[in-house]
Design a protein that fits this description.
By secondary structure, the chain is α/β, with parallel strands linked by helices. The chain contains eleven helices and eleven strands. The two termini are 29 Å apart.
Length: 276
């Protein structure tokens, strides 16, 4: 397929572009900074300069593509206003441009943080969502607006904490999680498995306007995750703040409807394979 991919200079998007191209898809990357994109995108990618907040640039970017994979978002460091502008308004402007261009499918990468605090229990796609921060709140708002949009075949993937493929995400998160309880568990997804889920949703038939949790088979304790990058366990001094991150994703819908089977089912498997 001809795919328009956003967020290609980010952790997920840059690795996703390479894996989708290996499956035979053709990538057109929507970027604000072409020079930066050229440094991370695989050879053969097409680049179109544009901005989620510039509707005119989006109309040109969406022309002639079969599907859009929307990974771009304003995450850490964003004010509530910035997160709203990019994650909600920008997403809907891209969706509307895609619909006008006759795009067949629109795949939106969201976050498992939309569920909010659940006391460490498994949450499925139809469970209530109560996000506790601007980033997941704007992602959830974008989800709901997309699902209410007529004339566009929408799929939503709620991602867990994504790692692997040389991504320093775990090490970078240690300072943010340093004071969480050591035994609190966290849902993980390897970059290879996120790419597999995206490819399955793009390539296989499924019901329209569907939400899927994407998650590997094991949610390890934070102490185990810290140990994987040579760090001592977190100290548990901010247990209340940690509650907003304690939802564990139930990935059974993705497995049942698509036959999804993680390439790296556990963090330990990725470490053993040298893929963490």
């Amino acid at each position: 397929m001809n795919l328009l991919l956003t967020g290609t200079t980010g952790k997920v998007g840059s690795r996703l572009a390479r894996r989708l191209m290996l499956r035979g898809h053709r990538i057109r990357a929507l970027v604000r900074d072409p020079e930066r994109a050229c440094a991370v995108l695989p050879p053969g990618s097409a680049i179109v300069q544009g901005d989620l907040l510039d509707p005119g640039s989006l109309a040109e970017a969406a022309r002639g593509v079969d599907a859009v994979v929307h990974c771009a978002a304003f995450f850490r460091g964003a004010s509530a206003e910035q997160a709203h502008a990019v994650n909600e308004i920008g997403t809907m402007q891209l969706a509307q441009a895609s619909r006008a261009a006759g795009v067949r499918r629109f795949l939106f990468t969201s976050t498992g943080l939309v569920y909010g605090a659940t006391g460490g229990r498994l949450v499925a796609e139809d469970d209530p969502c109560e996000p506790a921060a601007p980033y997941p709140a704007t992602k959830l708002a974008a989800e709901r607006a997309l699902l209410a949009l007529d004339g566009l075949d929408v799929r939503i993937l709620r991602l867990p904490f994504v790692y692997g493929d040389g991504d320093p995400h775990i090490a970078e998160a240690v300072p943010l999680l340093r004071h969480f309880p050591a035994k609190q568990r966290m849902s993980l997804g390897h970059h290879a498995d996120v790419a597999q889920a995206v490819a399955l949703v793009l390539e296989k038939p499924s019901p329209e306007h569907r939400v899927y949790n994407v998650v590997d088979d094991e949610a390890p304790e934070l102490a185990t995750i810290f140990r994987s990058v040579g760090e001592p366990p977190p100290d548990g001094s901010e247990a209340e703040r940690a509650r907003s991150f304690d939802a564990l994703l139930d990935g059974s819908r993705m497995r049942r409807e698509f036959g999804f089977a993680p390439i790296h089912p556990r963090l330990a498997d990725a470490l053993a394979a040298g893929a963490a």
